[in-house]
Design goal:
Number of strands: 14
Distance between the termini: 49 Å
Strand content: 5-15%
Shape: globular
Largest sheet: 2 strands, antiparallel
Number of helices: 20
Structural class: mainly alpha
Strand order of the largest sheet: 1-2
Radius of gyration: 24 Å
């Protein structure tokens, strides 16, 4: 049999990635050994070791060198304008490209979307080719399905990761030979919709092959109890729907057809995928919404516990736990409380905070909401108080100047320390400042941004049903009986808010504005906003361009006075900013791979 030299660091992939069992159980070979194809691909354990490379390519945005958690829209501000706000989408190439990118490294700062994704796509194609090779794999049908389902999912998923930033790509489904003719028709760039329809084929096939959960399958018994992050049917159905919904969205539909509106046929298909997932969740109980009391388990846990709870379907791969505190608190807490919090603070903008409703569930611009711009933090909805740290809030449990936030004009945490807040706020979603926050607890804090959670599925279900053929706020998917507005109310009710008022789902357009606002709040600071605004053709909408701060003084009782909203910067965005530019060295390799328009 032909010899192949696979330099595969399976040990590091398992320990730093999924961390299930010893690497010898998967590939009992020295990484430098010459091994046969049958050694690698002949049985389930060793083949799964090869598959593990793709788990190791999943980037953790919080710890991969991202300077503001990929919040490139209107959510946050730093002490100086982001290059992205100035229209410079070339600016942070070290997050997206290069910077010692290494798919097999155990250092989270070596993970880059572009290189990791293309590497993983090649691994997926090689795995699929070897599974189809006669007489090579000798495992059971169920083992083959697990392997094939993962490879298909990851091929689609890594394409989704590339395409959501750079647009459509050639959809490569085979292992490219080094002497391949790259001018062939199959390697020409597709638009996003065309590429997404290739993704959905892979996600659908993966969903049909994968188990509901590995703990419930025979191949998963060897690692039972440690299969939480293994790709399963829920992952595949979630991204099946997401790929359909993105393809159906106005910006992407306009690119493909010239029509800047939702594609109702693709919305219906997205709704069916989400409906299938939600029905499966209802029947199995494998994933369910966190209660309000433990909602924050989706984002962080103390005592080195992995966050995610019962709601998060897909989370980043764990690499180096030693970097967790640095990346969790960096830029989000005052450095003066004794944590390594960096030299600049990325903090919520005042304009973004306006998305949070009042306690009665009404948006702040509703005349009946009771919102008082001169007392902007009173009577807000419960998520506001779990997400946003404002003037006077307790920062941690130690006595002294930093115990309570001083975010008024001239206050210690506004002007007197570094990093100070440029807007008058800090945010809490990944750094739970408050009476229980201590430096010793911070050492044990585990914080991760979810890639996919059930709340997002409900919101995407509502959106896709709303814009389906014969859809609307009170319509349902063809395979799931929940109305679009009821899916939105699942999220609101969990956050201790009443059902959406009738006047806000009187028609598709009015209801969609509430979906936009609800996604801004429920998915705040999770990296969804940049994708959402672009796919909705709203990235350059005037409503989302101004990034503001709140300036105010304190009266004798510590209440805000002289409250003024101040525009810090107006984002420079045009149509070309629908997609990020691709590094020139890639776009000049062959004529069928052009640069994105405008760059």
């Amino acid at each position: 049999m032909k010899k192949i030299n696979y330099i595969i660091s399976v040990c590091s992939m398992l320990l730093l990635g999924i961390g299930l069992v010893s690497c010898e159980d998967y590939l009992d070979k020295s990484p430098e050994s010459d091994i046969t194809e049958r050694d690698v691909f002949g049985n389930f354990n060793s083949f799964q070791g090869f598959i593990e490379q793709m788990y190791n390519c999943i980037q953790d945005p919080d710890k991969g060198g991202a300077w503001n958690r990929c919040l490139f829209a209107d959510e946050t501000l730093g002490p100086s304008p982001y290059p992205f706000d100035q229209g410079n989408y070339w600016s942070n190439e070290t997050y997206f490209f290069g910077h010692a990118a290494s798919p097999t490294s155990g250092n989270p700062r070596d993970k880059r979307i572009w290189e990791n994704a293309w590497y993983a796509i090649r691994v997926a194609n090689l795995a699929l080719a070897k599974l189809d090779e006669d007489g090579l794999f000798s495992g059971t049908d169920q083992e083959r399905n697990h392997l094939k389902g993962q490879a298909l999912f990851f091929r689609g998923w890594f394409y989704f990761e590339i395409c959501r930033f750079w647009g459509g790509m050639p959809y490569v489904t085979k292992v490219i030979d080094p002497v391949e003719d790259m001018f062939a028709e199959e390697y020409k760039r597709l638009n996003f919709k065309e590429t997404a329809l290739k993704m959905v084929e892979d996600f659908r096939r993966a969903a049909d092959l994968l188990p509901n959960h590995w703990d419930l399958s025979e191949p998963g018994q060897a690692t039972k109890g440690h299969n939480r992050d293994r790709i399963n049917k829920f992952h595949a159905l979630g991204y099946l729907g997401k790929a359909y919904l993105f393809a159906a969205s106005p910006m992407i539909n306009e690119e493909a057809t010239g029509n800047s509106s939702f594609d109702p046929e693709l919305c219906a298909k997205a709704a069916q995928a989400f409906g299938e997932l939600l029905q499966l969740a209802d029947e199995t109980g494998l994933y369910k919404m966190q209660s309000w009391n433990n909602w924050t388990d989706c984002f962080w846990r103390w005592s080195y516990e992995r966050p995610g709870g019962t709601e998060c379907i897909m989370m980043p791969t764990i690499y180096d736990r030693g970097r967790v505190r640095w990346s969790t608190t960096g830029g989000m807490v005052p450095s003066s409380i004794g944590l390594n919090s960096g030299s600049s603070a990325d903090v919520p903008t005042h304009n973004y905070i306006k998305n949070y409703a009042m306690a009665n569930g009404l948006p702040i611009d509703d005349p009946e909401s009771g919102y008082n711009p001169n007392d902007p933090w009173s009577n807000r909805e419960p998520r506001f108080y779990k997400d946003i740290l404002y003037d006077g809030c307790q920062i941690w449990n130690q006595e002294g100047a930093d115990k309570y936030a001083q975010l008024y004009n001239g206050g210690r945490h506004r002007n007197g320390i570094n990093p100070a807040s440029a807007t008058g706020y800090y945010y809490l979603r990944y750094a739970p400042l408050g009476k229980d926050f201590t430096t010793s607890k911070a050492d044990q804090l585990q914080s991760y941004k979810p890639y996919l959670r059930l709340a997002d599925i409900y919101l995407m279900y509502a959106e896709s049903v709303n814009f389906s053929s014969n859809g609307g706020p009170t319509a349902t998917a063809s395979n799931y009986s929940m109305k679009a507005v009821d899916a939105l109310n699942v999220i609101r009710n969990r956050a201790q808010l009443p059902n959406l008022a009738d006047k806000y789902y009187s028609n598709k357009d009015v209801f969609f504005e509430e979906i936009v606002r609800e996604r801004a709040v429920e998915l705040a600071f999770e990296g969804q906003r940049f994708d959402d605004l672009r796919r909705w053709n709203r990235n350059y909408d005037p409503r989302y361009l101004e990034k503001t701060a709140i300036d105010f003084d304190r009266d004798e009782d510590g209440k805000p006075i002289n409250v003024k909203e101040r525009v810090v910067i107006k984002r420079a965005v045009s149509k070309k900013h629908n997609w990020l530019p691709i590094q020139t060295k890639y776009t000049t390799q062959y004529s069928g791979f052009p640069q994105n328009p405008g760059w």
